[in-house]
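Section 3.1: Structural characterization of target chains.
Under the original work plan, the team committed to producing a structural model for every single-chain target entering the pipeline before any wet-lab resources were allocated. The record below documents one such target. The sequence was received from the expression subgroup and is listed exactly as submitted; it comprises 287 residues.
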Amino acid sequence: MRADGTQPAAPNDLPNLPNAYPGGLGGGFSSWGPSGWVHNNWNWHDVLTYVQGSHNIRIGIDVDRQQDLDNFTAGLDRPSFSFTNIVDFAVDRPASQSGPIVDVAAGSTAKSLYSRVLMLQTAPFLQDDWKVNKKLTLNLGLRWDYFGHLGTVSYGPNPLALFTPGTGSTQEDKIANGSMLVRGANGQVVNNTLWRFAPRIGFAYDVFGNGSTAIHGGWGLYNNKIGDLSYVDGIRTNPPQFANPSISIYNAGTTLSNFSYGPAPVALPDSRLHRASAIKSTLMVAW
């Protein structure tokens, strides 16, 4: 299955204008386009059935390959300005600025922010429909959901770095000793592999043995897939490749000359480090 979409550019010269949010208006003026994305999903489901006496055994596998290709350069290389009130907006006195995204190595506004997210999930399973006797049938199943390293993220040919905790006896020490690292050879989202067994059991009981009245029941564990937007949006512009500068008049020593919109913005590192090392798949219990 393929899904794609685009967000068109604003008319006339508006695509070249920054985003502005004057206080007191209840909104602002912003533009994200032109931007586009493509999602490709390949699914394969195969089952082998074997009947032996009172057992109907099925062995199979589900394979889900997902590809998310996004080009959000136009939205990420545009700065955003906030103003305390409409008067400050009129005289061009911003209170804060965030962005545009900076290419750290080049020392200028980042270009070609084309991200690629690849995911592969597999689930082999085994099910036995066992007719115990004329009245009772049991449905016994076991599924192994394997999510691998959740996915890989890269910008063009360059794998994206993620904050990885370091050594230490406390969480504070691990954060203090942490660093931005590319996980694996291709930018894995998590170092460990994510998987979980999902057992299921059900029954059907023919009360009178003539098919007129039956009682059904069942229980099972089900694992939900994790959508890539749950982690990709927060890490698209991670250092050391990129930086998301932010500045405010409440920062000591800040003057209006520090605010900019041009090919070489003031590259103040964003202090927020996005971590994706403790992600777990969602578990659902069904009766």
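DSSP finds four helices and 19 strands in the chain.
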